[in-house]
Structure formats: structure tokens, C-alpha cells
Design goal:
Strand order of the largest sheet: 2-3-1-4-8
Number of strands: 8
Strand content: 5-15%
Structural class: alpha/beta
Radius of gyration: 18 Å
Number of helices: 9
Order of helices and strands: EHEHHHEHEHEEEHHEH
Distance between the termini: 13 Å
Largest sheet: 5 strands, parallel
């Protein structure tokens, strides 16, 4: 299956992508991983991306599209893939369609993880990270530490990352509404869109997505 996963920041795309890709036996291709891999390997596209990122600019569509195309042509993606973070706008969606059509392929579904904006803010702004080890993550509501401000695992100080502040989250949501949300209508017009309520346990959301794909 060839699937695109969309949804606002904090909808749980990364988590769901990992579970769905495993259940479907297809690779999970995330934009973040693509950038990191290309930059660390020193590819030409990676060098281009790094130059823009170092300057504080957005990486142009053609660079992102090039990375995605290279990854989708790898042997493990022959029988399908799950795209997470790409396409992020209509231009990229059109480029993806053109790439697939050139190979005689098409998308099977676009899963839209739906979650209320206030819930997104609550999820992200409530996150607390350990200063000693960033893999130790807590949440003031959903996974609070035993002692406020102290990591259960190592006793380190818990803090809120700057990009997790409510103001920053709301700005990220505005960017999502402006740049990425239009692809929902784009794919809806193609009859590919499947909306998945993203509230509740992770396993419940995964089951809803898998059930929807079977239909």
C-alpha cells in the first residue's frame, strides 16, 4: 500500500506511522528522517538542505521532493510506503502524483488524523523533557512525574522546550492551516481521504486506521 499520513502538529503522526508501517510491512518515510539521513551522509541534496537550514530558511520544495523521490525508489519501498510529513503543501502533492504516475503507480489512501486545536495545544504545551536525557519525556496531564519538575528515571530537572510553548504551538498550527491543510481538500477531491479521530489510546487510533484501510 502507498499511504500519506497528514494531521496537525501533536496529532500523533510519528507514533501512528511507526505502528501502521509495522502492521502493513511497509517502510515509514518521514521528512525529518530524510533530512537527517541526507545531511549526515553528505549527499548533494543534503548539502543543499543544510545550506538553507543553516541560513534559517525553509528548504525549497524541489530539494524535499528530490529526497522523497530517492527514498521511494529504494528496494524496500517497491511494495509500498507510508509518507509522514510529505507532501506538506499542494505543490508537493502534485509532484508526488506526477512521480507515481510516471512509474504507473498511485496512492491508495490519505489518512487524516483529526484532533481539536485545543487538544493539540494541551498535548504539546504540557510536555516536559529531562535535561539529562531528552528521551525521558513526561506530560503534566497525561504522564506526570512523581515529583513535579523532577525526572522519575534519573532525578534530572524537567523543562519545557521553547518550541513547546503555547504561543509557538499556536504559530505552528497557523502554518499548518495555511500551508498543509489545503492538501486535505486536494486529496478529498480524488476520493483518497480517510479521516481518523485521533483521540484516545494509541492502540485504539491505530485500530481505527487499520479498519479504515481494510474498507
Amino acid at each position: 500500500m502507498r499511504i500519506v499520513l497528514v494531521g496537525p502538529p501533536g496529532a500523533g503522526k510519528g507514533t501512528q506511522a511507526a505502528f501502521l508501517a509495522k502492521n502493513l510491512s511497509i517502510p515509514h518515510i518521514s521528512t525529518g528522517d530524510l533530512f537527517r539521513a541526507n545531511i549526515s551522509q553528505g549527499t548533494e541534496l543534503g548539502k543543499q538542505a543544510k545550506a538553507f537550514m543553516d541560513a534559517g530558511d525553509l528548504v525549497p520544495d524541489e530539494v524535499t521532493i528530490g529526497m522523497a523521490k530517492d527514498r521511494m525508489e529504494q528496494p524496500d519501498a517497491v511494495n509500498g510506503f507510508l509518507l509522514d510529513g510529505f507532501p506538506r503543501n499542494v505543490s508537493q502533492a502534485e509532484a508526488l502524483d506526477a512521480m507515481l504516475q510516471a512509474e504507473g503507480m498511485k496512492l491508495d489512501a490519505v489518512l487524516d488524523l483529526e484532533v481539536e486545536e485545543d487538544e493539540v495545544v494541551k498535548r504539546i504545551a504540557g510536555r516536559r523533557i529531562c535535561r539529562n536525557d531528552s528521551s525521558h519525556v513526561f506530560h503534566v496531564t497525561y504522564a506526570p512525574p512523581k515529583t513535579e519538575g523532577v525526572c522519575d528515571t534519573c532525578g534530572g530537572e524537567l523543562y519545557q522546550r521553547g518550541d513547546d510553548s503555547e504561543a509557538t504551538v499556536r504559530n505552528r498550527l497557523e502554518v499548518y492551516h495555511t500551508q498543509t491543510e489545503p492538501i486535505i481538500d486536494y486529496y478529498k477531491a480524488q476520493g483518497l481521504l480517510v479521516t481518523i479521530p485521533a483521540l484516545g489510546e494509541v492502540s485504539d487510533v491505530t485500530k481505527r486506521a487499520m479498519d479504515a484501510l481494510k474498507k
